[in-house]
Write a structure and sequence with these properties.
four-stranded antiparallel beta sheet; 8 helices; globular
Length: 168
């Protein structure tokens, strides 16, 4: 039950500015976030090796087929819906929200070239204000690297297709 409730909270917040980290269903990667310095003072580059931080999660995701994932989702949908209603959406469907979030994530930009960062406080931020203004979910897709993001988007398209064609 907690897993489903936490999953619903995270999905509902993926298009927002911040994720409610206490509801994450996974631990943060053990490896440190990697950056490289630049010639500019107080400016950094996102290190391409950062994608390796997410290899464990991507390996797990690769072991679960879209069919298995959707089978679990459909089987336990009443619990997902209940958790969504408990979040304060008694007249809405979680499935609609999930599709909305998938479409939002699929709109994440694919960045060519190096990604510049700044560190105004503790955490790094994108130097490009357009990137920094993206949602938490879209920024995560950028941080995991192009290959992982491409794989995630491919799977999201498949899941979206099934969810939008069920019952048709």
């Amino acid at each position: 039950r907690d897993f489903i409730r936490h999953f619903v909270v995270i999905v509902d917040n993926l298009d927002g500015r911040k994720l409610a980290t206490r509801y994450l269903v996974t631990k943060s990667p053990e490896e440190k976030f990697k950056v490289r310095g630049t010639e500019e003072e107080d400016e950094y580059l996102l290190d391409a090796s950062n994608a390796m931080r997410y290899q464990l999660y991507m390996g797990f995701a690769d072991k679960v087929s879209d069919q298995q994932l959707l089978s679990i989702y459909i089987r336990y949908y009443p619990l997902f819906q209940q958790a969504y209603e408990e979040l304060g959406y008694p007249d809405r469907y979680f499935n609609d929200r999930l599709i909305e979030i998938i479409e939002h994530l699929l709109q994440s930009p694919e960045i060519e070239g190096e990604i510049r960062l700044v560190q105004p406080k503790v955490y790094y931020q994108f130097a490009d204000s357009n990137l920094e203004s993206l949602s938490a979910g879209q920024k995560l897709l950028i941080r995991i690297g192009k290959v992982h993001a491409s794989n995630i988007k491919f799977r999201l398209r498949n899941v979206r297709w099934v969810l939008t064609t069920m019952g048709s």
